[in-house]
Amino acid sequence: MHIHRSEKILSWTVLTVLVLTVLIPLSWAVFTSLKSETSVIAYPPTFLPTDPSLSAYKAVFRNQTFASDLFNSVFYALAAVALAVLLSAPAGYAASRFEFRGKRAVMLLILSTSMVPAVALLVPTYYLLDKLGLLNNPMVIIVLQAARLVPQTVWFMQNFVDAVPRELDEATQVDGASHWQTFTKIILPLVRPGIAASAVIGVITTWNDYITVAAFAPEVAYRTLQVALVNQVFDSIGITWSYVMAFAVVCSIPIVAIFMLAQRWFISGLTAGAVKG
């Protein structure tokens, strides 16, 4: 009983430390965004704003390119995730249900492609796109971001399909269903939580992607909120920290909202592939 209580106390202590580690910087960012610039640079610094103001947020929404930056972020994220899931779901089903020579080697090769740092491919990809005249092309950005998501998504989908009993496949095929019909009518509805989990992870990854858009779509018309946020730091006029923090908070809100809305599916999806049926 004493050991169980000690483990419980230790668990709560660790969780409390982790939560505070996350909440303190977030709280500092939010409170900084509510301060005037004079209060931000005052010494000694204060944690809470003495005279809270939404002026920094008003400045963010009044930014001339904010609407287009937001649209590009949403468009790239949703399109890249949709493309990645569209390609990965059938591949994951095939990897789970079909046996072929070199299957494990192929799966490891797919996974290994996700281990190559994006920076290592930056220069050759840039020169290739430049020669083909494909810089500042939204479709290219979507394909590149989807390509980064596909390897891990294929492995996720394989694990999710593995959790579905093979007897269901056999029963439908006895009734004359093809593999494609089995996949679309039986497997896909059962692995929807897994698809949702993969989609949430993909949206977060794509939403936070800076280097792809900054390198391959340098024109302002094609940039995202993340690129615009970083550009604030390199502004020649100087950094307005209340504005930068307000911008960062606004950029984070859509991801937090998506996670909160899909939390139930996200958690069930992550645990769906842990135990095979």
UniProtKB/TrEMBL annotation:
**This chain belongs to which protein, by name?**
Maltose/maltodextrin transport system permease protein MalG
Q: Could you tell me which CDD domains the record lists for this protein?
A: TM_PBP2
Q: Give membrane topology per the record.
A: Multi-pass membrane protein
UniProt similarity note: Belongs to the binding-protein-dependent transport system permease family. MalFG subfamily.
What the entry lists under Pfam families is as follows:
BPD_transp_1
Keyword annotations of the record: Cell membrane, Membrane, Sugar transport, Transmembrane, Transmembrane helix, Transport
Q: Which domain of life is it from?
A: Bacteria
Q: What does this protein do?
A: Part of the ABC transporter complex MalEFGK involved in maltose/maltodextrin import. Probably responsible for the translocation of the substrate across the membrane.
Taxonomy of origin reads: Bacteria, Pseudomonadati, Pseudomonadota, Betaproteobacteria, Burkholderiales
- Positions of the ABC transmembrane type-1 domain: 70-262
- Record-linked Gene3D superfamilies: MetI-like
InterPro entries reported for this sequence: BP-dep_ABC_trans_perm (IPR050901), MetI-like (IPR000515), MetI-like_sf (IPR035906)
List all membrane-crossing ranges.
12-31, 74-94, 106-129, 241-262
Q: Cross-referenced SUPFAM superfamilies, in alphabetical order?
A: MetI-like (SSF161098)
What are the subcellular locations of this protein? Cell membrane
Q: Which organism is it from?
A: Rhodoferax ferrireducens
